[in-house]
Amino acid sequence: MSALAKKNDLDAAHFILGLSIAILVIVVAVPVLLIFLNAFWAEGKFNIVDVFAVLREPDTYQALLNSLIIASGTTLGSTVVGTFFAWLVTRTDLPFKKFMRGMFLVPFMLPSFIGALAWKMLLSPRAGYINRLFMDVFGLEAPVFNIYSYLGIVAVEVMYLFPFVFIQVCGALERMDPTLEEAARISGAGLFTITRRITIPLVLPSILSGALLIMLYSMAHFGTVAVLGIENGIYNIPTLIYERIHQSAGSFASIRTGTVLASVLVISAAFIIWLQGKVLGRGRYQIIAGKSFRPVELKLRALRWPMLGFCVLYIGVTIVLPTAVIFLVGGLKTYGLPFVSENLSLANYKFILFEYQVTKDAILNSVTLGLAAAFITMFAGVMISYVIVKMKVRGKGFLEFLGMLPFSVPGSVIALGVILAWSGKYGVNLYNTVWIILVAYIARYMAFSLKANSAALEQVHDSLMEAARACGAGMWQTLRDIVLPLVRPGMLAAFFLIFLPSLRELTVSIMLYAPTTRTIGVAIYTLNEDGETVFSAALAGIALLLIITGQTIINRVSAKYQG
Amino acid sequence: MATILVESVSKRYGKHQVLDYFSLRIEHGECFTLLGPSGCGKTVLLRLIAGFETPDSGAIRIGETVVARADNGTHLPPERRGLGVVFQDYAVWPHLSVFDNVAYPLKLAGLPKQSVRDRVLESVALVNMTGLENRLPSELSGGQQQRVALARALVARPALLLLDEPLSNLDANLREEMRFEIRELQRKLDITVLYVTHDQEIALALSDRLAILDENGILRQTGTPPEIFEHPADLFVFNFMGVANLLPARGEGKACLVGRQIFPVEPGACPDGARRLAGFRPSDVLIDRESPDGAPCLRGTVRRASFLGPVMDYLIDVDGNTLRASVDTHEALDRDRMFREGDPCVLRFRNLHWFDASDTAGKGAGA
After folding, report:
1. Does this model's pTM top 0.90?
2. What is the CATH number of the domain that holds B141?
3. Could you tell me if residue B363 is inside a domain?
4. Per-residue pLDDT tens for A251-306?
5. Are B257 and B229 within one domain?
6. Can you give the pLDDT at residue A407?
7. Shared domain check, B130 and B106
8. Same domain, B233 and B261
9. For chain A, give me the number of helices (H) and strands (E)?
10. B225 and B183 co-located in one domain
11. Is B196 on the interface with A (CB under 8 A)?
12. What CATH number corresponds to the domain at position B290?
């Protein structure tokens, strides 16, 4: 009987391990593998020559170059902006620091393609409100700024991506032991020397890590480039993949190009993540402790209020202005009319919420897809994290490797992989159904869930579980009574980390949608493409309201959990 | 009955052999301590007995039941071994109140509500926590959390209680108080207790018997606290049980020499040509200014004198060997034994332990 008990335990462990591996293999590994297979394997043999041929085609080559140019520009810009504001709100006596710090995190909530949409309305060369203002009122010949350009794309991406660096650097600056700086000061170093020789070297890993995160994000970013680039023929890797797959309806050549480009993305992403691990793994990062200290503050003196003015202006231009434009355009009778009260009404909002089938479907699809993806991914994530963090079974190493995969697979790659895997070639055809989008969402957001859940599980010390076993609880009872209640905050975090972004998801759904399976993101994008700018803006406004409401709820809930 | 029998148990982690054919017998109703330095495998042994680990070889029996046996893969999971465990970090579940923490084993056992309530209140009273049943662990001090862990381990009335360094996270006063309470509970409930610690003071105060493990997981000695303290089996045990002085002595003819002096010891302790170590505690050194009634003594010089409150602590040099001696402060004041640095002194010893000089496990604690 006792031997049996051991067997049951082991069986359960192996069952969980097997299930975890199966989920990751089916959802993430198979699509990625199929991409590599299609890229490097032609007519039954390994074929690298064709890969280079594809990469040498002018279009593909240009797309690769564009991805690199845009990503570099965005990374550089975001790093400068993010580091500067981080320093300002942690190390100076800027007025209303706490409030400003919160404001700098707002861009996280704003989907960048909605931002891009807003800037298009403001700065498109002919129709943009700002350009028109200058041309009509001040009689300028040419538009002030053409947003359909590299600079425009980079500027918009910087506006909505810089918080990645901002958060990392803020954290590092706050957790840095001030005695390190005080020691330098006692040794006779001036503030400038301290900053250059002590502070910057110490926070450099955080800056670099944030920069690499942005690099990764921007390389694979679809929305902004799609909204602002295509007009002027600027394609990056994800937009070119979309263009090819979308227009050719799955021809062999386009799949080929798509998979080769996707492979480039996966490999660069893996490289960036490896580099980030190197940067963070370096010993000097250890000096930054987990505790919070009260750092030395630089007195801004006469610059105090002007600096605040600058911050407020920045927030006003990058957040308030675009958001206002979205809501205002959403209220217009026709796009292009001036914003005066007789042109504005809530009619569009009423129409897209209650009458227009396309947008009604989109909202319903996004909400159900988001809820379903969040639920499934949350539970799958907690199970997989449990195996990785807590269980001692053979074969765990393979799962750990699989668990890393979701972090390095960009959205457009997942979409393409999912098309390859689930279009009937292997017996299951989900193409043109919501299910294919659901599968892709699960793959895309698995990384969030794994991160949140493993962090929560690491807080649950092994002895808490062993204590339950000693009290007479079996493995499942321990999970139910002890582990699950303790990781509930992590699971809840995972749920919202998935549900909210999925409401505005564009990159994956744009490649997978069918006429009845549009999501909010797709609907906003296609309405804009079709020239239905006011409906597009109104729907974007609704999406923003949904996101802001959701975020407020999360903040409330997490504040409650932290006591 | 909860006699624990550990038979030829081995356990290794990767390349590190923690336990190698280890055997031990713990009798029913005794309070038994596993004492050893950190990394000696004492916690591993406790975890093997609890069922959190499985042995690579050998068998473990609790009472009549074989709970683990490597050769046929027998492994009774921890929840079916009927034991209570208290962990070093308390492991009190942070999401449950004191009451719910303690009630958990009973709820699992399916006891009716009223008797769960009675038993929990009884257990909580046993550890002097009455009135705090509705608190959450975050509202308790470390000592209180440890009491909750104790109550939880005892509530199902296990025949065997395992404690893994449960007091090492507590401050000194609380530690002292808790160790008496554990002892009292063990007697009151007539259970077998296995206590794991690296603190020899707790081990001596708490145990009926104790076992001493060295850093390689080898059992050096088992016995009652007085046996271990008064008759250490070897240099390791002697060193581990407290501050140890070791004087290297050599036999020359009939005499025993320390440095250039004759060491007055009983005949046969250090035969001709032998090199041995004489071990003794600081409290076993009798220090005087002059030899009383001319008896043979070792001569030394006081190198350091420290006032420690109840005792005076001296560091003494004897022909290049340093040793420590302690004298009761009142005695020192009354009988002119307040030495200052540089003062000459004479030394006699009681209760010498002799060890082979080749025994490498010894490190003099004098300096």
Report:
1. no
2. 3.40.50.300
3. no
4. 777 888 888 889 988 888 888 888 888 877 654 444 444 444 566 677 778 888 99
5. no
6. 78
7. yes
8. no
9. 29, 2
10. yes
11. no
12. 2.40.50.100
Task: Quote ipTM for the complex.
Answer: 0.81
Interface of B with A in 123-182 (CB under 8 A): 149, 152-153, 156, 162
Provide, as residue numbers in chain B, all residues whose Cβ is less than 8 Å from the Cβ of A485: 95
The per-residue DSSP string of A21-49 comes to HHHHIIIIIHHHHHHHHHHHEETTEE-HH
Domain that holds residue B164: 4-238
Q: Specify the pLDDT at position A561.
A: 65
Give the CA angle between residues A220, A503, A128 to the nearest 5°: 70
Under a CB-based contact definition with an 8 Å cutoff, are residues B169 and B91 in contact?
A: no
- CB of B34 within 8 A of CB of B194? yes
Number of folded domains in chain B?
Answer: 2
Q: Are both B255 and B211 inside the same structural domain?
A: no
Q: Is the same domain home to B202 and B67?
A: yes
Q: Say whether residue A317 is in contact with chain B using an 8 A CB cutoff.
A: no
d(CA B317, CA B303): 6
Chain A residue whose CA is closest to B153: A471
Residue B29 included in any domain: yes
Average pLDDT, chain A: 85
* Residue at B82: amino acid letter: G
CA distance B353 to B249: 12
Taken in order of first residue, the domains within chain A and their CATH numbers are 57-237+297-330 (1.10.3720.10)
B367 is a domain residue:
no
Preferred mutation among A392, A471, A486, A492 to probe B, highest tally of B CBs within 10 A:
A471
In a domain, B366, yes or no: no
d(CA B61, CA B1): 11
CA A66 to chain centre: 20
Please state, for a pLDDT cut of 90, what percent of chain B lies above it: 48
Query: Which of chain B's residues have a Cβ under 8 Å away from the Cβ of A471?
Result: 79, 84, 104-105, 108, 152, 156
Q: Which residues pair with B347 in a beta bridge?
A: B287, B298
